[in-house]
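Appendix B, record 7
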Amino acid sequence: MERRRFLYGSVFGSGSAIASYHLLPALSERITELDAPVWGFDPVVGDGTWIWREPPKNERGYLEPRSYEVNIGIELTGVDSRCEAIATTPVPLNHPEQTIDEMRIETLGCDAIVRELDPNAAQLLVHAPMIAAGQVVTAIVHYKMTLYKQYLAFEKDQFPEFQRVPKEIQLSGLGDSPGIQTNASVVKKLAASISQSHTHPWDKAQSYVTWIQENIRPQLGDYTSVLTAIKRKTGDCEEMSALFVAFCRASGIPARLVWVPNHNWAEFYLTDHEQKGHWIPVHPACYRWFGWTGAHELVIQKGDRIRIPEQSNPSRLLMDWLRSDGRPLANYLASMKPIASSSSEDPGPGARIKDTRSGEWKLTQTHQMDRYARR
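Structure tokens (predicted):
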């Protein structure tokens, strides 16, 4: 039997961050995937406290930390015969706007590890060597995390017109990605036409947001591609953010997608006058301002060209994935819940639980201010 190389921690189930190689048998080519919904274009209208209506006047940085419990896992149930299975689901990493304070992996009947695919994307990898009919095996990663709102007060004058892009940023922030056809002639021509009166990359980026919001009609649905969005002039947050990324890259401005539950936006990269690099948040589907996010969001992935060892082609966004030599049922579990620091403190809105059928992270509607949160 062919054998494949899997990259993950040194000891299954330990949660170790020390990377090493381990061999697992390749199973049959039966692969099932659940592409979690990513949609939205309605701006979140804040209450001014839990969700900002405008950026703060006297502060900048990563602000107003809130603690969350986040649980992400996989449940496999044997159906008609004994089988082996390998499954994955995306999990968060540390980013400037979030920190992982505690992490532990709980398993029943399987081995599991968190494997980092690149500095901005990771998966829970589960291996069940033998699942009997009727047996249920589970692996759940329990996190305690701190999430921040961000306001970085970026302005055009902070950045020189001529940009020197570091090599590592060129590799990750330029070029084509699945469904983001940066090098297509129609994309290059359109990007050049939109930004023809601008020379500064900040102004170019603003012109792209304006064009997207004025020309792409909001329409919910499965992701199509940048080329389809241009042709149909429709899309939701995925198409709008991908269009922004493609236009920026076509102009030599590094850019990438950011994925949070049920939604995504973009970031573009500029170096300041001291040659320090900055990834600048942009919400093409909702707002025209740059550089701030007024809600506490769980970042699941950054980037849109992720290499997965078991797949020959890169992935734009990670999805729930199963390979087995039988027919086990798979449920992909996830939840997030804000934690109060004391019994008298209001933990606030934003609790979500993942629908195991659709993959949607639904608001639990347990807090009166959930009506302000993005659906």
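Remarks on this record: The domain at 154-290 is CATH 3.10.620.30 (C8orf32 fold). The chain has two domains: 3-39+65-149+307-372, 154-290.
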